[in-house]
Write a structure and sequence with these properties.
Helix content: 25-40%
Number of strands: 14
Oligomer: single chain
Largest sheet: 10 strands, mixed
Distance between the termini: 41 Å
């Protein structure tokens, strides 16, 4: 039985180039290239699989890039159910420098036809019954209306599924209206949603309360090296993580979401769930590949996490 379903409607073939002292206008030889399945939901699926929990990835797949992504998922033992589309799945290229800076080139991706959208809705309706937790995350591809995630959340809730939701822009606003169980944001995404800078923890909590007024039970705000804040059942949890040597922070929010999904599935104590989630996000930043967690690093980080619990204002 599939226990966790991830949804990636705009996946990518990710190509990571570690190049020290990268500068524009110069020629470099890439001695190492890492190819991985990409897109927020696929990053979540990769981390869930590292816990040896059953997971299925759903979304769209097109062209040779789509075939290559499916081959890599097969090699990792990750089940998937994709709708085949006419256009090519996008590429994502990132150059990682020694100083931890990252230069990214992200293609806009394929345009999804009306027929392909209908096919996906039919597929999704069939497979959500097998899942206990559904993680919906990432950007929408061209051709899909901004309320697509709202529709997917409503369909899942009609079958009493817990939905984890991570998006931005108008797709986020519409999705929140459907009252998913969990909403995850980083600071920049939260500032975009609220329309003001998060200058203090009070600002972050005020924003979380706004989201929760829509029926969202749990809000996670990732704050990079400063840790994260969780808001649940009238309390805020300020989760502090240890200092680590970061290599690439891309996908850390996805790893956090995966760690929390696994912890909830396993019915861990709530504060233990927070530690697993935060440790996964931090451990991901120690890897070049997005959506990768070394379990030894994760456990080491967990032992150093501190949590401050407060009553929400």
């Amino acid at each position: 039985m599939v226990l966790i379903l991830t949804v990636t409607l705009n996946p990518s073939l990710d190509k990571w180039y570690p190049i020290n002292e990268f500068e524009k206008g110069k020629a470099f030889m890439a001695k190492d290239v890492i190819y991985t399945p990409g897109g927020s939901g696929l990053n979540v699926a990769k981390v869930i699989k590292s816990f040896n929990e059953p997971v299925m990835a759903a979304g769209f797949s097109g062209g040779r890039n789509g075939e290559y992504i499916e081959e890599m998922l097969d090699n990792r033992g990750i089940d998937y159910s994709f709708i085949s589309i006419n256009e090519e799945t996008r590429n994502f290229i990132a150059i990682i420098s020694a100083d931890e800076s990252r230069t990214e080139i992200s293609e806009i991706g394929p345009s999804i036809s009306g027929e392909e959208v209908v096919e996906f809705y039919e597929l999704y309706k069939d497979i959500i019954g097998t899942a206990e937790i559904i993680c919906i995350s990432g950007n929408l591809p061209r051709g899909l209306p901004s309320d697509t995630y709202r529709n997917l959340i409503i369909m899942a809730k009609e079958q009493n599924k817990k939905v984890f939701f991570d998006a931005n822009g108008e797709a986020l606003r519409y999705g929140i209206e459907a009252s998913p169980f969990l909403v995850k944001q980083n600071r920049d995404e939260l500032e975009e949603l609220m329309g003001f800078l998060m200058a203090s923890e009070e600002d972050i909590e005020r924003s979380a309360r706004y989201i929760m007024e829509n029926g969202v039970e749990l809000v996670i705000v990732s704050l990079g090296s400063a840790g994260s804040m969780f808001f649940y059942d009238g309390y805020s949890y300020n989760v502090k993580v240890p200092n680590i040597k970061a290599i690439n922070a891309a996908g850390s929010g996805d790893a956090m979401l995966a760690g929390f999904a696994v912890s909830l599935l396993r019915d861990y104590d709530f504060e233990y769930q927070l530690k697993v989630a935060a440790a996964c996000g931090t451990a991901n930043a120690m890897e070049i590949e997005a959506g990768k967690v070394d379990m030894a690093n994760m456990k080491m980080i967990m032992n150093q996490i501190e949590i401050e619990k407060k009553k929400m204002y």
